[in-house]
Design goal:
The protein is of the alpha/beta class. Helix content is 26%, strand content 22%. The strands form two sheets. A six-stranded mixed β-sheet has the order 1-12-2-3-4-5, with helices on one face. Strands 6-7-8-9-11-10 form a six-stranded mixed β-sheet. Pfam families: Metallophos.
């Protein structure tokens, strides 16, 4: 009997170790999701343009070997916030921002952990590495004579609606909003919103879903979503992407929710192709 109990105990311990190794590996995978998205109001000159999008890097160190092949292969790099967290090594953040700036022009917004980490240090790093911080502000991306508007909404900001109201309704608009619930509450048409914050739940148990994710976020934990308020909404044709994030929060583990970044190819709406 004692031998049976010992064997059971050893099996449980080994299974636990194997699970921990698997979760650590899932959290440190370099996984790029490549996909095309039809964007309302996209100027024809932007058709086929590529965005490298990543969010929630936190303490994870980006590797040059994983990313350097993307130089001259993507047009812009967009970060959905949380490039840092409280107590982080600032040289690590500088390394990550420098590497991304090497690939293409970089744009970012603040996430909740960025503000806890210290925006004074972050602003200096952004400035030194050429990363453009969009803190309740806009800029224009250009292709030839055409342009689209990139809107950055600060975390927990109340200015998102007013930013959109100030823009030409004919312009194609891409917004970076760290929190997807904030993104869904924006009033005014947006063609594409890039978000993060949820980490996809980070630990997702089969049959139960992301049990440690706040209930308010479970319906938008990760993936693509329509921005239509309801079936009768004819003004809003845009889409929302919620990234699972590239780093981790609290524990360096993931389960059934691998780390990811995206290469997004922008396409005109098929029914609007010339």
């Amino acid at each position: 009997m004692a031998m049976v109990i010992l064997a059971w105990f050893v099996t449980v311990i080994l299974a636990g170790i194997a699970l921990m190794v698997h979760m650590w590996r899932e959290a440190h995978l370099h996984h790029i999701v490549s996909e095309e998205v039809e964007v309302p109001n996209l100027p024809s000159s932007f058709d086929g343009s590529k965005i490298l999008y990543l969010s929630d890097i936190h303490k994870r160190k980006l590797k040059k070997n994983d990313l350097e092949h993307l130089r001259n292969q993507v047009d812009w790099v967009i970060i959905g916030g949380d490039v840092a967290e409280k107590g982080i090594s600032w040289p690590l953040v500088r390394h990550n921002m420098s590497l991304l700036s090497y690939i293409a022009p970089v744009f970012t917004v603040y996430g909740n952990h960025d503000k806890r980490a210290g925006t004074v240090h972050l602003e200096r790093i952004f400035r030194d590495t050429g990363v453009q911080l969009l803190q309740d502000s806009t800029t224009y991306l250009r292709k030839g004579k055409s342009k689209l508007c990139l809107v950055g909404v600060d975390y927990r900001s109340r200015r998102g609606d007013s930013l959109l109201a100030e823009l030409d309704t004919k312009d194609c608009k891409i917004a970076i909003v760290h929190d997807p619930l904030e993104a869904l509450h924006l009033n005014g048409p947006v063609d594409l919103i890039l978000s993060g914050h949820t980490h996809g739940g980070q630990l997702v148990f089969p049959g139960f879903g992301p049990v440690f994710l706040n209930k308010a976020y479970r319906s938008v934990s990760s993936g693509w979503f329509s921005l239509k308020k309801d079936d009768n909404d004819t003004e809003q044709e845009g889409k929302l992407l919620v990234s699972k994030g590239y780093g981790t929060n609290h524990l360096p583990f993931r389960l059934c929710c691998p780390a990811e970044m995206h290469i997004i190819t922008l396409r005109m709406l098929s029914n609007k192709q010339p």
